[in-house]
Amino acid sequence: MTGYGSSAVRVVYDPEARRSMGPSVFDDRPHAVTIGVFDGVHLGHRWVIDSTAQAAAQLGAATAVVTFDPHPAAVLRPDLAPRLLTDLDQKLELLEAAGVDSVVVVRFDHERAGERAEDFVAAVLVECLRARAVIVGHDFQFGKDRKGDVHLLTELGGEYGFEVRPLSLMPNPPTAGTQGRPVSSTAIRAALAEGDVVSARHLLGRSHEVTGTVVTGDRRGRTIGFPTANVAVEPNRAIPADGVYAGWFHLPPDDEHPAGRSWPAAINIGKRPTFHDDAEHSVIEAHLIDFEGDLYGVHAAVGFEARLRGEQRFDGIEALATQLQTDIAVARSLLQSD
Fold it and tell me: Is residue 191 part of a domain?
């Protein structure tokens, strides 16, 4: 996963667009549908999607995901909204990789939050997707005052001609390397907050990545012999705890490299205490190992494989440079062994 968006999966960015775009959007195909935020598209989400695909195959239907943007909590409880594991482009790319045929991205706002569950089902599941089956968690709730649940869905399914298949917990969730964490977006965010990118990787089923544009920093790394790409990431994104990591820097496709390029990197996240006493925000700086070139303005993806150490203050540039040499050597060794 490189964070550059999706092209093959069919997407409607709000069900109201279905009326103006005409019946060719989804070829009026019936769908087996699952509904959720799907932040991270982690292994638990993949199990739900696989279950939906199985239902689709049994019914001769396509597989669809209904998701929401922005995250509902960002609208209803902005002070408590979680940091996101994926932006919308990454989510669509991951859903495509999971084999989803169609995605409806529901624009979530206060008006949508006040929509009756019955109206949501009629507009999105029936009119937009011609649902034949709906696969959700057994405790799933939706619609105004969260009055929509499996019981109501089942009643509406009888009226509109779709079946409801509630799911319980994921069977055989991964345990090795997860520190006993459950498979959930919340658990992955907690692992990242501790710098535990290995647990995050096991729960996600892939390395955690963030995307952003390479911007001009203070250029201090170049002056001491360790140039870095300063990646500006949206403030609502979940990033690992301050520290130094081994990972990969993914460059976008271009004419010469239509599949893009990936470079091993030593990545620093932090407030750079050797040079700043009271920096307000952590920054992400990636040193691309054995790379030469200008990256300013490039939209890149940064993936995290292992934490090397915590952030620390050094007595001077010479001590910092010595440690950076060690960090780069360790990162190189770890990434070559992958």
Answer: no
Q: How many domains does the chain have?
A: 2
**Does residue 154 sit in helix, strand or coil?**
helix
Domain boundary among 167, 198, 215: 167
Kindly report the CA angle at 78 between 210 and 100, in degrees rounded to 5? Answer: 50
Do 279 and 331 fall within a single domain?
yes
User: Which residues of the chain, if any, have pLDDT below 50?
Assistant: 3-6
Strand order in the sheet with 10-12: 10-12, 102-107, 62-69, 31-35, 131-137, 163-167
Burial status of residue 110 (CB atoms within 10 A of its CB: 0-12, 13-18, 19 or more):
exposed
Per-residue pLDDT of 176-205, as tens digits, reads 889 889 999 999 999 999 999 999 999 999
Same domain, 158 and 275: no
Q: Which helix (H) or strand (E) holds 93?
A: helix 88-97
Contact 215, 232 (CB under 8 A): yes
The pairing of strands 229-232 and 243-251 is unpaired
Give the burial string for 37-55 (b: 16+ CB within 10 Å, else e). bbbbbbbbbbbbbebbbeb
Same domain, yes or no: 41 and 162: yes
**Residue 13 and residue 104: Cα distance in Å, rounded?**
6
Could you list the residue range(s) of the whole structural domain that residue 279 is in?
207-337
Question: pTM for the whole thing?
Answer: 0.91
On whether both 32 and 133 belong to a single domain, the answer is: yes
